[in-house]
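Tip: read the tokens left to right.
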């Protein structure tokens, strides 16, 4: 007597066998694609990879990260991207970036930098990848996060120092103050305090740099990032970048002082952004006025009690108009 398994178990067994067979076929196609690449036949390799399911290819690459790496250098430097990695960047760029973002390690970060810089002269692809790394919900080590931030800063500084004709059109990718994570009070400082909604192309990199530092600069990376921010390269944004660094390297009061001399409202918003408790922020000499302003805002509530005794009438008038 032959005992038949339950129908569901039999169906599951058949599906499992079918999946295994399909996986074996796709694995053979990838293997033959690698043979074609080694024999300098990229067109044949590309045709084979086109017949491989993206989900299978991603699982394979995540499980075998060495497929994206070429031979190791004798001097110990990070290996260059493999021919397969370069082919995938042309054929499946989104899939490749997704793989590179999976389990991001320092070696993977270096590999991505070499691969994406080599593939894109404008470095926009690399910039997008680094943004994704920094915004990732993965628990990244401080070294990886700092390296990603430093590389992003260097890319943007490169764009800032590149000569761009002012008459080459306007940049409208982001209107002022619209970038997620960028401090709104930066619009009160040069060069964006007098800028129109449509920014010039030369201002795009500075705007993105402000956004990047607003989101990701902190006490763990400021000493690495600060030396990169050469004032001569900042194209009128020297003050904004300097005060963005100050709360993270023990110069919060100095930042308040500088901003108060320009715009008391800007100083107040700066204090609210970086002072955990405005009442406990130590302020000396003239910025005592800023303390009065910041103490008026009890943890950003709409119920504000103005302490006129600490605030000059002109400053109080400005503050009242904003409440």
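Filled-in amino acids:
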């Amino acid at each position: 007597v032959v005992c038949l398994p339950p129908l569901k178990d039999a169906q599951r067994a058949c599906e499992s066998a079918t999946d295994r067979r399909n996986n074996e076929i796709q694995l053979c196609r990838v293997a033959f694609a690698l043979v074609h690449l080694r024999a300098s036949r990229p067109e044949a390799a590309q045709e084979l990879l086109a017949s491989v399911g993206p989900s299978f290819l991603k699982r394979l690459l995540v499980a075998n990260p060495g497929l994206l790496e070429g031979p190791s250098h004798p001097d110990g430097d990070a290996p260059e991207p493999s021919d397969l990695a370069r082919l995938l960047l042309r054929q499946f760029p989104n899939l490749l970036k997704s793989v590179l973002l999976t389990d991001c390690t320092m070696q993977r970060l270096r590999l991505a930098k070499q691969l994406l810089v080599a593939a894109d002269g404008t470095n926009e692809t690399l910039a997008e990848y680094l943004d994704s790394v920094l915004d990732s919900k993965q628990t990244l080590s401080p070294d990886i996060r700092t390296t990603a931030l430093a590389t992003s800063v260097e890319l943007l500084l490169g764009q800032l120092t590149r000569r761009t004709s002012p008459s080459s059109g306007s940049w409208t990718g982001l209107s002022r103050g619209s970038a997620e994570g960028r401090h709104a009070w930066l619009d009160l400082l040069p060069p964006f305090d007098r800028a129109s909604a449509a920014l010039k192309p030369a201002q795009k990199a500075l705007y993105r740099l402000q956004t990047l530092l607003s989101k990701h600069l902190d006490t763990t990376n400021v000493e690495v990032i600060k030396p990169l921010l050469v004032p001569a390269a900042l194209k009128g944004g020297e003050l904004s970048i300097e005060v963005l660094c100050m709360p993270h390297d023990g110069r919060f009061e100095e930042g308040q002082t500088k901003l108060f001399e320009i715009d008391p409202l800007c100083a107040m918003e700066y204090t609210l952004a970086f002072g955990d408790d405005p009442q406990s922020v130590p302020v000396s000499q003239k910025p005592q006025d800023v303390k009065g302003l910041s103490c008026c805002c009890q943890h950003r509530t709409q119920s504000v009690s103005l302490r006129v005794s600490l605030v000059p009438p002109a400053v109080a008038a400005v503050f009242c108009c904003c409440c």
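Confidence is low (pLDDT under 50) at residues 1-5, 164-178, 277-323. Residues 2 and 189 are 84 Å apart (CA to CA).
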